[in-house]
Amino acid sequence: MSLWSFANPAKFMKVTAPLVPALSGLSLLLLVIGLVWGFFFTPDDYRQGSTVKIFYLHVPAAMMAINAWGAMLLGSLIWLIRRHHVSALVAKAAAPVGVTMTLIALLTGAIWGQPMWGTWWAWDPRLTSFLILFLFYLGYMALWTAIDDPDTAADLTSILCLVGSVFAVLSRYAVNFWNQGLHQGASLSLDKEKNVADIFFYPVLVTMAGFVLLFLALVLVRTRTEIRLRRLHALQLRERMA
Amino acid sequence: MSALVLRDLALAFRSGGGFGLALAFFLIVTVLVPFGIGPESGRLALVAPGILWMGALLSCLLSLDRLFALDREDGTLELLATAPVPLEGVAAAKALAHWLTTGLPLTLAAPALGILLNLPAAGYWPIFVSLLIGTPALSLIGTFGAALTVGLKRGGLLLSLLVLPLYIPTLIFGAEVARRGAEGLAAGAALLLLGAITAGCLALAPLAAAAALRINMR
């Protein structure tokens, strides 16, 4: 048995049916633990006060905003190379989740930025590249809805995803060239010296794990819906033929 | 391939609307700017390089949706796909023809329009060079976008939504060259990066455009 056997939609449906409630439950548990821990059982930052606590939502959402695009890229590549329909549908399902995560990161950032930087928005490289990522998501989803034939739509959006990935990375570094930043550097690092203090680090690890599971659960639900939609469509066609 | 370029050029010249339209649009955008932000020459000089780049970019976008659409409607695209020239070559020829009819005239007109916006004297050469190097990338990326949306009935608006985010790096470096040049700063690094984007697009955009065309003609 190989990994590719899950590309069979029937098998995929069977395997993921128990996974969805398990992942959602675990994600809920981790998010509740992480957020309660972060909000009530960690000290305030000595300069930013209690506003720092939005960190526990902001950082995981920003991480998933980028990883969702990565998932789309992977799904698109597998679709283009091996023509497994499920993988194209996973890419389609990941986009709305990713765009929501991008929006959460931008909004929590604005809410955090208002008291700390005195502004809701600044044309900082990180903020700007997230806004650009948001535009890429919009274009990708618009192309999906614009094309009627599902296979053509999957092909064209996959190519757009590949080209878009190149330009998203290019934009990420181009905006560094264009303007100096207000946003702090990376808070999380494998280097112990640069990492945020442990007392903040452990709760954020828990919420990050919660966001990963939440993303997986949402993508699975959406993929299952897409598969059911296709099945329904096929049934309707058969009905009309008969 | 040269025959294809010549054919597209001839079509653009003779059909009237296609060729001068981008230039006229560029002129109108430039004329509208002082109405929007006020006629003070200091303020205009400050924004002139950016406005010229934005205007050129939007003018480039204008004619993109016709790039493959007409050929698809009358079946020329199918003939081109079965021609001995590979589809990648067709896409490159289309991009070249698009650049010759929009990018090049825009580049030549930009310094003249700079007078209207009170562009500082030091800025003429940088805006010309940056557009000369940057507009081919705009045409190439636009060709990819046009190939992606060729099968859609109302692809125009979607085309803008898809192509404009892809234009961001080119715009950043191009406007940076023009701005630095106008302020008398060294613009070499930005110019090299702009050239790198154009060279990369030249190598890869025809491949992506041809792949999209093949899917759309299935």
In short:
The complex is a heterodimer of chains A (242) and B (218). With 242 residues, chain A is mostly helical.
Describe this structure in words.
The complex is a heterodimer of chains A (242) and B (218). Chain A has 242 residues and is mainly α. Chain A has helices at 9-40, 55-82, 85-117, 125-146, 150-178, 198-241. Chain B has one domain. Chain B has helices spanning 2-14, 17-37, 41-62, 66-73, 76-82, 87-116, 124-148, 156-166, 168-182, 188-216. With 218 residues, chain B is mostly helical. The A-B interface holds A 132, 135-136, 138-139, 142-143, 146-147, 152, 155-156, 159-160, 162-164, 166-167, 170-171, 174-175, 177-178 and B 144, 148-149, 151-152, 155, 158, 161-162, 164-166, 168-169, 172-173, 176, 190, 193, 197, 204, 208, 211-212, 215-216, 218. Chain A: GO terms for molecular function: heme binding; heme transmembrane transporter activity. Chain A: Residues 25-183 form the Cytochrome c assembly protein domain. Chain A: This is Heme exporter protein C. Chain A: It is found in: Cell inner membrane; Membrane.
What is this structure's SSE topology?
The complex is a heterodimer of chains A (242) and B (218).
Chain A: H1 9-40, H2 55-82, H3 85-117, H4 125-146, H5 150-178, H6 198-241
Helix pairs in contact in A: 1-6, 2-3, 2-5, 2-6, 3-4, 3-6, 4-5
Chain B: H1 2-14, H2 17-37, H3 41-62, H4 66-73, H5 76-82, H6 87-116, H7 124-148, H8 156-166, H9 168-182, H10 188-216
Helix pairs in contact in B: 1-6, 2-3, 2-6, 3-6, 3-7, 3-9, 6-7, 6-10, 7-8, 7-9, 7-10, 9-10
